[in-house]
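Saturday, quiet lab. Running sequence design on the structure tokens for the scaffold JK sent over.
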């Protein structure tokens, strides 16, 4: 073991020494000092060093990366931090060693990239491919690179939580937009474009985000909760396979959008997709006409669906159609008054969730579903939004932290309660 590394707490010093000798096989005293300082900060120096060796062996530019680590200690710090933090990030870097140079030299790390920036870049990338399958694979490569960038912003630059979740949410919106564009050409060639009734007016398709994506609170492991809408009934113009009804066309479009996002290929997947929050859940159609969706919530909507729709947000496709749906469901989500039956339904939902966690013995340990966990905070905030949002417009936000601030402004939460909820969230 070289002298510079004797203070690094390796579990297997002999193996670490061999790996270091392979990296520092030339006289690189400055790199040895800098590498020792970085490794001493890692959670597991043995694992970090093993991953560094794997990364250096993965590409054709081993010498370039070692030279960069020697010339720029902050490059070595970024690289080791990413490798130490996550097996998934290590896989991305080893699969695409060139991403590290891009991350160091070009990537935007000081701010969240906007939805429009990400969408424009991704659409430009997928438009170089002609087939649905090739475009879907291209989306996966784009997502891998951008996840690496957001992770560097989070764990290397220590950007605020809100900025990181905004970045991830914008990435998901861009991916959904790209999935629609990837899926449409083949369907239109087969059946023609969908129209409304007997008119020449084109039918529109919209994707609403719910859950964490709806609140722009997406994290690295989140799936995306989606709802697919189309503007109305009619038929398509006809193509190679003849015309079909709009309902059939948009079911096919929705199926292909889900596939473009969630199918696992040799390039991985973009995002896991959850469609269970749509009208009638799993037994309902994948895409729902606007009038049918509105009728469902007016006639059969349940208390838990009010909470789900608090977080509804236009994500992709025809954003005006999505916004129309949100505005027209507002009386359902935020009624002026709640009857006792609705409040009892909400109370039973909470009891069932608590009983489920209690039966697993996780009430005090499950960070997401346990007492005081993420869902507990979200549930508390959402119930207060439901009870007061009918008369207070600024409570009708999909974002949990924004809702907490609004509840404090209206003295529904005390400053102490608001700080406690926000801090723990």
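Result came back. Writing it out in full:
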């Amino acid at each position: 073991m070289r002298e510079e590394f004797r203070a690094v707490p390796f579990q297997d010093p002999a193996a670490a020494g061999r790996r270091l000798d392979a990296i520092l096989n030339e006289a690189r005293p400055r790199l040895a000092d800098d590498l020792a300082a970085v490794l001493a900060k890692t959670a597991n120096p043995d694992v970090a060093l093993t991953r560094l060796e794997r990364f250096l062996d993965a590409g054709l530019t081993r010498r370039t990366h070692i030279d960069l680590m020697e010339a720029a200690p902050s490059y070595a710090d970024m690289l080791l931090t990413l490798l130490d933090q996550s097996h998934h990030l290590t896989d991305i870097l080893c699969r695409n060693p060139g991403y590290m140079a891009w991350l160091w030299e070009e990537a935007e790390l000081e701010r969240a990239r906007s939805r429009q920036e990400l969408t424009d870049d991704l659409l430009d990338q997928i438009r170089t491919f002609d087939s649905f399958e090739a475009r879907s694979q291209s989306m996966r490569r784009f997502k891998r690179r951008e996840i690496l960038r957001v992770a560097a912003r989070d764990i290397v630059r220590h950007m605020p939580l809100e900025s990181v979740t905004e970045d991830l949410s914008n990435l998901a919106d861009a991916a959904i937009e790209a999935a629609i564009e990837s899926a449409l050409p083949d369907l239109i060639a087969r059946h023609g474009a969908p129209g409304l009734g007997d008119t020449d007016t084109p039918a529109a398709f919209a994707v609403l985000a719910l859950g964490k994506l709806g609140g722009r609170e997406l994290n690295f492991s989140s799936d995306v909760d989606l709802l697919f809408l189309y503007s109305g009934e009619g038929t398509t113009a006809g193509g190679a396979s003849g015309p079909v009804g709009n309902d059939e066309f948009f079911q096919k479009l929705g199926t292909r959008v889900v596939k473009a996002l969630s199918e696992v290929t040799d390039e991985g997947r973009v995002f896991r997709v959850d469609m269970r929050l749509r009208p009638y859940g799993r037994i309902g159609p994948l895409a729902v006409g606007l009038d049918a969706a509105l009728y469902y919530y007016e006639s059969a909507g349940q208390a838990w669906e009010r909470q789900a729709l608090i977080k509804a947000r236009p994500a992709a496709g025809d954003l005006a159609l999505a916004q129309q749906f949100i505005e027209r469901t507002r009386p359902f989500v935020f009624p002026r008054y709640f009857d006792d039956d609705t409040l009892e339904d909400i109370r039973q939902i909470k009891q069932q969730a608590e009983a489920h966690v209690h039966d697993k013995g996780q009430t005090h340990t499950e960070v997401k579903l346990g007492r005081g966990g993420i869902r507990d905070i979200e549930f508390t905030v959402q119930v207060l939004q439901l009870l007061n949002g009918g008369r207070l417009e600024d409570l009708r936000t999909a974002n949990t932290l924004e809702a907490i601030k609004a509840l404090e402004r209206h003295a529904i939460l005390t400053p102490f309660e608001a700080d406690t909820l926000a801090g723990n969230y």
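Notes for JK: DSSP finds 20 helices and five strands in the chain. The two ends are 44 Å apart (CA to CA). Ask whether to fix the surface positions before the next round.
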